[in-house]
Amino acid sequence: MTPPHQSTHPPTTANGHAPAPLTEVPALDSSVGARMRAGDGYTGAISALVDQVRTHQSALDAVRGPTSPEATEHYERFMQLAAEVRGRGLIYPYVGSGLGNGPFVELADGSVKLDLITGIGVNFFGHSDLEMLSVAIRAATADVAYQGNLLMNEEAIRFAETLIRQARAAGAGMDHAFLCAGGALANEHTLKVCFQKRAPKACRILAFSHCFMGRTWAMAQIGDSAGGRDGLPLNVHVDYMPFFDPIAAKRLSAGDVSGETRFTDMAVWHLEEYLRRYPDQHACFIFELIQGEGGFNVAPTTFHRALMDVCKAHSVPVWDDEVQTFGRTTRMFACETLGVSDLVDVITVGKMSQVCAVLMSSDMNPRAGLLSGTFLGSSIGLQTGRAGLVRLAGGDHYGDDGLIARHHAEFRAGVQAIADRHPEWFPRTHEIDDIVGGLGGMCRFTPFGGDKAAITKTCKQLFDDGVIAFYCGHGPFHLRFLPPLGVMTLDQWAPVFEIVEKSLGTVAASLRTKRPPPVRPMAKPYTNT
159-169, pLDDT tens digit by residue? Predict the structure, then answer.
């Protein structure tokens, strides 16, 4: 697979023109509100609150169990209440105390765990980050808890401006940003934008197999999961394209033609067949450049660019879904990491940004009335989200040797060390090309042949032992981490993998007492003979 690389293309709109420069406007300071926030009493009160958190969070620096049997009993009763009010129990018995320390989070029973999934990637700066807390306290004094399209404060415009500037710095020609309160909502809005752009004939969508788009009605229909749309009437027409498969590509290698090239050619043929079969009927092609729920699957730049070039030739908008990847790869935008920024028409971002958004070129800007909504985001989300983006852009997280790249290397080394000591836990199978994968802060590994029951059991064992993780993939299944790389240090991987090895050992011992999960052996490579 060709390595990901930074885009060298200057930002352009879909029609090839450079985006117009944004107006420079200094911060407003003429209001009573601005004078209040600049006052010594105001800033001093914030500092005093932050100091209180700093004092108490220092005790949360290692994994530990509940503080007492009474705390455990109370917590179990609370879990019962949670199941009653929700209609079913929580995936994990996780209810936070409201305090943490970087990757460490305290639960309401006083136990402390290492949070390596961060709310499925939301809390990139971990728990109780003092800088983010200071911003959040300031935002909490805003006159409204939530802002919307009829009422917004200055921070909403500043947040959108920051996103546009960072997208342009990544080589993407984005002109506008529409803010909203969730990733699935951002995707819903984008779907409407694309259908309007391609009206009146467009009635279909192109997406990759194993994609995930969210849990609204329309997004559940696009997502490649039968369980996600169980019982729903279907009215969204989706044509699924094969995502890059490194195992299949290896088998396709023949002569002087690489398997990567042959697989890409096959995918291009598949796309052209859809476009021929349904001429001018596709509203967009949704590119989840690095698949999230589908298994942290990565494709080479050549694969994505070849398909995007076909889309451009047929005037099919290219939608870059970065709700999970945004901020988490070795560049701020995954489209820059994979070198395709110049070919995208619309980008959706979310999770670690706190407030979600649709970024679009001027060509994709919809007519008035199509997009709106009561809420666009909370005052705290807008301010902490922007602060996080500015902090990351000005730090040393990105680049080929940035912190995120070094964290991923540390993660890979930790998994490989365990596999070297216990190869029986990591069988190579028909479906598994590499026991460790992902990119940047999207980290996954595959013990026990990717068997779903064994993987979900490992997730629960990890939680009990002190590490919060989750799974991804549709067979094979993988363990996944979305660690808080905004604050996590490289030396904090060591205690993580001590627990991982312990948990894997516990699960492996339990599997030996039962019939082991079925494992298909690796197939022989394809030979053109």
Answer: 999 999 999 99
pTM (two decimals): 0.94
Report the pLDDT value the prediction gives residue 103, as an integer from 0 to 100. 98
| Residue 354 DSSP symbol | S
Q: In what order do the strands lie in the sheet with 104-107?
A: 96-101, 104-107, 112-115, 467-468
Strands 112-115 and 146-147: unpaired
Burial class (CB in 10 A: 0-12, 13-18, 19+), 305: middle
pLDDT at residue 527 tops 70: no
- Sequence-distant (≥ 6) Cβ neighbours of residue 337 within 8 angstroms: 4, 5, 6, 329, 330, 331, 439, 440
Cα 505 from chain centre: 29
Write 151-155 long-range contacts (CB < 8 A, 24+). Answer: 152/376, 153/379, 153/382, 154/27, 154/28, 155/379, 155/382, 155/383, 155/386
| Dihedral sign for Cα atoms in the order 328, 57, 61, 99 | negative
Q: Give tens-digit pLDDT for 390-408.
A: 999 999 999 999 999 999 9
Q: Which residues contact 447 (CB under 8 A, 6 or more apart)?
A: 425, 426, 435, 454, 455, 458, 479, 504, 507
- 324 Rama class: left (phi>0) / alpha (psi -120 to 50) / beta: alpha
Say yes or no to pLDDT of 28 above 90: no
Helix/strand/coil for 319: strand
* Residue 324 CB partners (closer than 8 Å, separation 6+): 120, 121, 183, 290, 292, 293, 350, 351, 442, 482
